[in-house]
Amino acid sequence: MSMISVSAGIIIHDGMLLIAKRRPTAVLPGGRREANETPEACLKRELKEEFASGVTVHESVGSYVHTYEFGTVELTAFRADWDDGDFNSRDHEEIRWAFTHELDQFNFAPADYAVIQRIMAGEIEI
After folding, report:
1. Quick check: 7 and 31 in contact, CB under 8 A?
2. Rounded to the nearest 5 degrees, what angle is found at the Cα of 121, between the Cα atoms of 116 and 122?
3. What is the pLDDT of residue 68?
4. Domains of the chain: residue spans and CATH
């Protein structure tokens, strides 16, 4: 099995984190990096495609590996600032802002849990 590289953004606004619930028909994982694309460029492109929103990508907060039945995913997470747009989703059934203490109330894709746990533990500052 080959490694699937994906990028994820930690987008913070007024002390809250942007979270999005994918549609049941959405293909996992989202945020797949294309050939010859940097992880940062991937994140900018994916957010523009999926949310019609622009972001400024900052430092990476780590890479995490998760193995699904279809293959292994390496997720690289970045801090990002929301620049413009209204987050009009094409692949998500719900988008909302949530406080850190609320994150355990939501279901995330398995590859996302390592990042979410670090945020909830205060290891990634919001």
Report:
1. yes
2. 100
3. 92
4. 3-120 (3.90.79.10)
